Amino acid sequence: MRRVSCAMLVLLLVATMALAGCAKPGTKTITMASKDFTEGYVLTSLVVGLLRNAGFTVNEKAGMKTLIIRTALTSKQIDAYVEFTGTAWTTHLKKTDIIRDPVGLFDAVKQADLAANGIDWVSRIDFNDTYALAVRKADAAKFGGRISTLAAYVAQNPKGALFAVNPEFYERPDGFPALTKFYGMSIPSNQVKLMDAGITYQALDNKQVDVAMAYSTDGLLRKFDLQVLEDDKSFFPIYNPALCIQKDVLAKYPEIPTILAPLAQKLTTEDITSLNYAVDVEGKSPNVVAEQYLKDNSLIK
What we know:
With about 300 residues, the protein is an alpha/beta fold.
């Protein structure tokens, strides 16, 4: 979902090699890959840190795009990776019904993926990295702080809000068209500017637009001091991260959910946003910020 700089990738590879050299010896081995955006790297680093602390040797694969990493899992090129429930439900499992309850969605994904593909799901983390609409904090009161009040404002001021949206979200049927219809907004095409997701934040900060598509746990929200409008009618799907893992690998290592449970119970939206900020804004390696988080929260020594 998000872009990662070349410099950050270099830091990631260096840190990964360093940690690999420090891995504890043992016979428990697992191969993991990460999704190719900041939060994907951070979540994978957190999971890998806990597994290595528990005596696993973890072989890591480079960051992969959504469909490639899924194919790697189903073809057994890797054993596990961190995926999001909303992505699995709509993209991998091709389901069209919307499940608003996070636990219900996780259970549905787990059951369907296990039955169809032999992929199990464990250790759901209760933060939601979903799409969002963001505004400058100074404008939050004008738009009412919620998407429904933004819709009311747009109805009274058809040219009063200029939107920034990335092309994929603008074109996909469950994206911007569905959002505007769901909230009863009629927005002319000339009131929408298409741009890459990362650039939407900069455009908002520069006052080139008034409302921007965002991701709810993005560190750039903090960098540019933006406010996410409340999705008060629950349009956006749930995207909880969890470990999806081949069922045979989980049967071989049934202790994995227990090892990951403290992270699943601890990691909050505020935590992951801070970790993303440390990578995207401060230029730190995902492995470094993940290791520090695990130590600070007494999850590893």
